[in-house]
Amino acid sequence: ETGVTQTPRHLVMGMTNKKSLKCEQHLGHNAMYWYKQSAKKPLELMFVYNFKEQTENNSVPSRFSPECPNSSHLFLHLHTLQPEDSALYLCASSRQGGLHNGETQYFGPGTRLLVL
Amino acid sequence: QQPVQSPQAVILREGEDAVINCSSSKALYSVHWYRQKHGEAPVFLMILLKGGEQKGHEKISASFNEKKQQSSLYLTASQLSYSGTYFCGTEMSATDSWGKFQFGAGTQVVVTP
């Protein structure tokens, strides 16, 4: 138990559906991250939020839309996804968004997404 | 720019040692090591911030050679609980990629009785 929770844990959706992934951290951290983990590929950093502000978007397609209403919650809104978007989506948090200062990230259990 | 890990996989008997390497083509500010067990989230092991620094986590230790832009993770007297996929994450310090953080593809470790 890392103090980072994600819901749902599993999600199956059609390409025309709209769904949202939720992440919540109970660690008092100020930075939150979305990662995509596909089979046999490295963890891909998608978005970074520091103090509710988006500070990094690694060329993620617009069909993925993040939202960070406060430092404890992070959402990933999904619409018109493609089958190749099927993956494990991991949320993480760190104290102050200082990966640049060698901060530890605490990961949630992930949402396993299947796009049909 | 993604760090390169080697080997891709290693099988050990309990009690044996192994080394996992992580190399970057860019100058590094820090190296992070995580372990992910099947079906679970990655879990932090250690961060190395200074060149030449060595850190340890139980019988797992790591070194960081800033000049060679690489880090090595040492699994000593491996235990069954060490099984999992080990990822290095590197933060770059080069001017054109300062602060960029990326994970390697991972090294799968299987420890057998």
Question: Could you characterize what this model shows?
Answer:
The complex is a heterodimer of chains A (116) and B (113). The mean pLDDT of chain A is 90. Chain A is built from no helices and eleven strands. In chain A, 0% of the residues lie in helices and 55% in strands. With 113 residues, chain B is an all-beta fold. Chain B has no helices and eleven strands. In chain B, a hairpin with a 4-residue loop joins strand 7 and strand 8. Chain B starts with a strand and ends with a strand. In chain B, 39% of the residues are buried. Classes of the chains: A mainly beta (116), B mainly beta (113). The A-B interface holds A 2, 4, 40-45, 90, 99-100, 102-110 and B 2, 29-30, 32, 34, 40-44, 47, 49, 87, 89, 91, 98-99, 101-106.
Give the topology string of chain B: H per helix, E per strand.
EEEEEEEEEEE
Please state roughly what percent of the residues of chain B sit in beta strands, choosing from under 5%, 5-15%, 15-25%, 25-35%, 35-45% or over 45%: over 45%
Rg over alpha carbons of chain B: 14 Å
Radius of gyration of chain A: 13 Å
Structural class of chain B: mainly beta
Number of E strands of chain B = 11
Mean pLDDT of chain A: 90
Our estimate of the beta-strand percent of chain A is over 45%
Largest sheet of chain A: 7 strands, mixed
The greatest interface between two protein chains, and residues involved on each side, is: A-B, 20 and 23 residues
Protein structure class of chain A? mainly beta
The mean pLDDT of chain B is 88
